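> forwarded from #structure-qc
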């Protein structure tokens, strides 16, 4: 029998369940999402579940259950069920859906800590890590940076100089599956009952890291490609695995792009370590572009603030503002359409 406490079930979740119309039914956590099927871990084992019609067709894509969600289901037959309700999400990692203006794609929910995984080769990218950090801060998810394949030749002093502003904000781990002591340090940072998600590009070794942390092969990890010298990425879905005596891991497919999906820009200054400078600006609504008395610009000109970090701030701020404005306009149109539908229904009812 599964003890759901090790998967993160707690008194707050139990209270949320009691508010549901279906509180007498069993609950569980979504461990894997297939196209129309959800693997749900419950106190009575694992169930293969589908959605009710009202859930499947009455919600947008990002509102459907995802890996990490807590759901209530109606069991039937042996180890099968129908998901009838979903508990409200918390600490959900989103990204902007590729090819859209304001649509969101959910990666995982009820995430306590998110590991940004990069490898110490040409995949290393400070600006991409900043982008992940901003989105995680928006959802109150603790971030950590894992620089994998530390057995490769690299200039550690140069790397640490490039990421010194990030070192001050989040933990940074240098790891290699060929160096067990580095895996142990990473494992010790994951308390029992916590959920962590691994995100990053393809080929950085996320699945191999998960296997090393668990001490056994749970996720497929391909051989090294002869043409590129990199590991071929094999994760094609978000999958939850349990670590013995530790937390819950969610591995994710590699992402080429990670667009910001956030309504505000308040967290940007804090994440990029420029908030102290911003507080010293002459004007409270300073945009840090060309205003007189801008302490941020003064810090850039004097070399106290890295110009590349400042440029990253401006780029991410423009992106966040664009998404927020597009999202607001989208909600406005949806509200107007809903109002129009209700008026049409009233007219028909009065005939």
């Amino acid at each position: 029998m599964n003890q759901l406490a090790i998967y993160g079930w707690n008194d707050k979740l139990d209270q949320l369940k009691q508010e549901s119309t279906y509180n007498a039914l069993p609950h569980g956590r979504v461990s894997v999402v297939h196209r129309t099927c959800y693997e749900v871990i419950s106190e009575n084992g694992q169930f293969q579940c589908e959605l009710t019609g009202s859930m499947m067709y009455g919600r947008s894509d990002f509102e459907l259950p995802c890996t990490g969600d807590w759901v209530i289901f109606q069991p039937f037959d042996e180890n099968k069920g129908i998901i009838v309700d979903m508990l409200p999400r918390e600490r959900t990692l989103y990204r902007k859906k590729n090819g859209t203006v304001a649509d969101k794609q959910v990666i995982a929910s009820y995430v306590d800590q998110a590991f940004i995984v990069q490898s110490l080769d040409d995949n290393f990218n400070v600006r991409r890590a900043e982008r992940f950090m901003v989105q995680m801060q928006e959802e109150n998810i603790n971030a950590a940076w894992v620089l994998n394949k530390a057995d490769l030749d690299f200039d550690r002093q140069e790397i640490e100089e490039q990421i010194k502003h990030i070192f001050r904000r989040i933990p940074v781990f240098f790891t290699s599956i060929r160096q067990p002591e580095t895996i142990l340090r990473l494992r010790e940072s994951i308390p029992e009952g916590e959920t962590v998600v691994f995100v990053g590009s393809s080929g950085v070794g996320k699945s191999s890291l998960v296997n090393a942390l668990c001490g056994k092969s749970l996720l497929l990890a391909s051989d090294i490609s002869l043409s590129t010298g990199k590991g071929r990425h094999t994760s094609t879905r978000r999958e939850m695995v349990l670590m013995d005596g530790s937390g819950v891991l969610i591995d994710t497919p590699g992402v080429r792009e990670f667009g910001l999906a956030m309504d505000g820009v308040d967290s940007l200054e804090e994440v990029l370590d420029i908030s102290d400078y911003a507080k010293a600006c002459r004007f409270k609504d300073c945009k840090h572009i060309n205003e007189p008395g801008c302490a941020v610009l003064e810090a850039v000109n004097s070399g106290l603030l890295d110009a590349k970090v400042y440029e990253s701030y401006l780029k991410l701020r423009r992106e966040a503002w664009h998404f927020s404005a597009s999202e607001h306009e989208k909600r406005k149109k949806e509200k107007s359409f809903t109002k129009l539908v209700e008026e049409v229904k009233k007219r028909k009812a009065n005939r």
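QC bot note: The mean pLDDT is 84. The domain at 4-86 is CATH 2.40.50.140 (OB fold (Dihydrolipoamide Acetyltransferase, E2P)).
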